[in-house]
Structure formats: C-alpha cells, structure tokens
Design goal:
The complex is a heterodimer. Chain A is mainly α. Helix content of chain A is about 85%, strand content about 0%. Chain A has two helices and no strands. Chain A is rod-shaped. Chain B has seven helices and two strands, in the order ααααααββα. In chain B, strands 1-2 form a two-stranded antiparallel sheet. In chain B, a hairpin with a 2-residue loop joins β1 and β2. The two termini of chain B are about 20 Å apart. The chains are: A mainly alpha, B mainly alpha.
C-alpha cells in the first residue's frame, strides 16, 4: 500500500497532480451548487 | 424530434437539468474506470517510472482546454451571426470550465516537468501558448463581467473569443513548428505511438473529462438562464 502511495519516489508529483485536480473540480461543483441553490430558494 | 424547440432558453432549461445529471453520472463511472486502468492495469513506464501516470489527467485536461475553447468560440460565432439568445449563454457557461481545465493542464504539466525535465516551468512555445489560453479564458470572463447589458457583453466576448481562436492551432502545432522541450504528440488521428493499455486509460479519462465538462457547463447555463430572467 505504501509502495502505491510513494509512486516509486514520484509521489509528490503524481498525487500533487491528481489531488489539485480533484480539489479544483470540487470547488467548481460547490460554487455551481450554491449558485443553483440561490435561484431555487428565490423561486 | 424538432431540435429547434430546444433553441429557446425556456424549453432548454429543464432539458439541460436532466442532461447535466446524466453527464455527471457518466463522468463518475468513466473516471473510476479510467483511473483503474491507469493505476492498476497499466504497467510502469520503462523510461519515466511511475511519474508518467500524470499522463492520465494531463493529456485529457490539455485536450479539453483546447476543445472547450473551440466549442465556446463556435457558440460565440453563432451568437454573432444569428443573434440567438442561447448561444451567448452557452459561450459564457463554457468559459470557467475551460479555464479550469487549462489550469489543470498547466499545473499537472508543471509537476510532470520537474521529474522529467528538471524544471517546473520553461518558456517554450507549447507552455507559453497554453498559458496564453488561460489568459484568453480569464479575459473573456472579465470582459463579459464588466459589461452590464448581457447582449452587449455577449457580442464583446464573442469578438474576443473569435480573435483568440488563432491560438488553438498555435498550441496544437507548437511542438512541430518550434523546437520545444515539450514532446511531440503521441496520439493523432492517424494513430498512436503509445502502448494500447496506456492509450485506453488516457482515452477513458478523456471521455470522463468530456462528460464532466458537459455536466458543469449545463448546470452553469441553467444559472445564467435564470439570472438573465429568461426562464
């Protein structure tokens, strides 16, 4: 398992890529959800 | 089926909601499958070791960054040519997601460059033109946000989007036109120089990003339709 996370010594680069991607997409989804909610509560 | 029925914001609004939910579901399934292929099935790369696994997000994100710009410019052009209400809203809805994928392409490329090239950033033609793409998206969004009248904002944004289209072939062909640190394309319409299982993982991830981008853009266009009081 720890072998998987170390990515042959490239863990920072590989997980840094996927981690930031995941966070960026989640931020977009949260922003979109709150923007949608605003309209639904108004309607 | 009469497709023109959906060209008006009122009728498109509920359809967009259904399509968005379906797109997100498809995106989640494809992402799980693509990451499984990329991390569990595909072997370690002979030259780059495990660092190459960044490819499963870097290349799909970079393709999406260019593709979404073309789609955005297409809707911008439709809006200018036919003055259809939904076109400008579609262009506006695509821009933030396009900018997001451009950022992801730059970020993951940077983290891939360090172990393979020895540097996070270099001002070569591919990287510089991709950075310009990010500024085009941000410029488009800032320009639209700065104009109160939505129809005028759409027209101004459309002109910027269309001028910026010139950058897309520059990004794509930069690795052939100039001597770049960035490698040439491993995949094009004629074929691929990659191992089939690596290519499979990359393509599945590309479709996942595609489905995600469709979902996010549709949710955003629904917000824009509401905000402009068109539904």
């Amino acid at each position: 398992m720890s072998e998987f996370f170390s990515m042959g010594g490239y863990g920072w680069y590989v997980w840094g890529s996927y981690g930031v991607t995941l966070v960026a997409l989640l931020i977009e989804l949260v922003v979109l959800r709150s923007r949608t909610r605003k309209h639904e509560t108004k309607a | 089926m009469n497709w023109f029925w959906y060209a008006s914001p009122q009728t498109f609004y509920p359809l967009a909601g259904k399509l968005a939910r379906a797109s997100f579901a498809v995106a989640a399934l494809l992402a799980v499958a693509g990451l499984y292929i990329g991390f569990a099935v595909a072997p370690t790369d002979a030259q780059q070791g495990e660092a190459y696994r960044i490819i499963y997000i870097h290349v799909p994100a970079a393709w999406m960054s260019m593709f979404l710009y073309l789609v955005m410019a297409f809707w911008a052009a439709m809006g200018l040519a036919f003055n259809t209400r939904l076109s400008g809203m579609m262009a506006q809805a695509l821009a933030p997601t396009g900018a997001l994928f451009t950022f992801i392409a730059l970020w993951t490329g940077s983290l891939w460059g360090k172990p393979t090239w020895g540097t996070y950033w270099v001002w070569d033609a591919r990287l510089t033109s991709e950075l310009l793409l990010l500024f085009l998206y941000l410029g488009f969004m800032a320009l639209q946000a700065s104009i109160d009248d939505p129809r005028r904002a759409d027209r101004a944004g459309a002109v910027l989007a269309l001028v910026g289209v010139v950058n897309i072939p520059i990004i794509y062909f930069s690795v052939q036109w100039w001597n770049t640190l960035h490698q040439g394309a491993s995949v094009n319409l004629k074929g691929s120089s990659m191992a089939p299982v690596m290519l499979a993982g990359m393509l599945v991830m590309t479709f996942a990003c595609w489905a995600y981008a469709i979902g996010a853009s549709l949710v955003r266009v629904r917000c824009i339709i509401r905000e402009r009081g068109a539904a």
